[in-house]
Fold this protein.
Amino acid sequence: MNNDVCIGLRMMPLTSDYPYLERLLDIRDEAFPANERPNSRNVSSYNKDNGYINLVFEDDNVPVGFMQLRHCGDDAYYGIYLAIGKKFRNRHYGSRALKLVIEEYLKGKMLFGCVEALLPEAENYQQRVDRVRFYQRNGMFVLDGVVDTGKMGKYQFVCTDPNMTFEQLKAKMAIAMPMLTV
């Protein structure tokens, strides 16, 4: 494994017999504060049969991250989260993983997701700005408008399709995550 940049990154579906599941759980714990962490069931057993897709990213057989998607119609997928292990950040793994998902897994279908809204008063404002810039650098567009989910906070949509509107994505979000009021 090259220490500077991911050269051999590969993507595969997460299966119940994945040998490095514990490492993925460590990556989850590094990537999310305790109150926002997907539980281990989300990481290991949500599958295509119930609309979820879990993808693992490895470099030289070392897990570096994972992404969870939710299918929401023939033409769209909701990116629930993308998590890259701390020691692999700032080395292009996140960008390469996102590119693999968009180009090789989705093959032209739309990907959208949510990022915390850019609210200047937020304690983690710079982190929010950095996340938005990451998605923009990787070909995604930030839509105007804020989704207020109540207890979970305020979010903005990012999307690979520059022609999508805020209202169209709200409708797709209702399909992807019906448990959220958007």
Notes: The chain is about 30% helix and 25% strand. The longest strand covers residues 62-71. The mean pLDDT is 85. The longest helix spans residues 93-105.
